[in-house]
Please model this.
Amino acid sequence: MFARALIVLLIAINLGVAMWWLLRAEPSAASAAAQPPGVARLQLLSEAKPMAATAQAMPAVAQAAATQNAPVPAAPNQCFSLGPFATAAALRAANARLPQLVRVRTREPAADAASARGYTVLLPAFASRELAQAAADKIKAAGFNDLLLINEGDDVNGIALGRYGSLESAQRRQTSLQAAGFAAQLRPIGAPALPAWLDIEARSGLDLAQLRADTGAAQSPTLDCASLR
Model:
């Protein structure tokens, strides 16, 4: 009896083992390739080549993107003298025809400056009273209150910005106005009409030939921009 029971038990165990073997899940590739902690996984040569190619391509792509996004440096300003203007009327007419410029300075001969009784700083005549008033309002808004609209004479509809006994004071006033964006001019008072020049700083690309034609200037020699500052 005992032997029969043992045989039946062995048969049941074998059947259980066979059923477990048939129904067990296949081991996953991840579990088969599990690495111990802190140990890097080995790579096949075929896996390493695409990664190396990608790593080499990344700096080139980044460099190309940086080149495309780099700002284009602005062209330097051009500086030159415009003239000569033999009379005050010719100088005023040239001033009135100037386009928007970075900086403008009137340069008088030494003999002219020596004989002057004083100097006036002004904006040349505008085409209308309305334009002159609008310019005066902008000058006041910028903090310059010492000004006067000119009502008569050759400079009617111009803006007087101060009268000074010394050339240095007049030039300081002119420079401060020009730094604020106003094309202030300096003119000697009581001096004889002698040839004068306009020293100009302008954005790159200005057509000098057209500017000479517009202002009646015969020459436009190059000027060092540092001398205007």
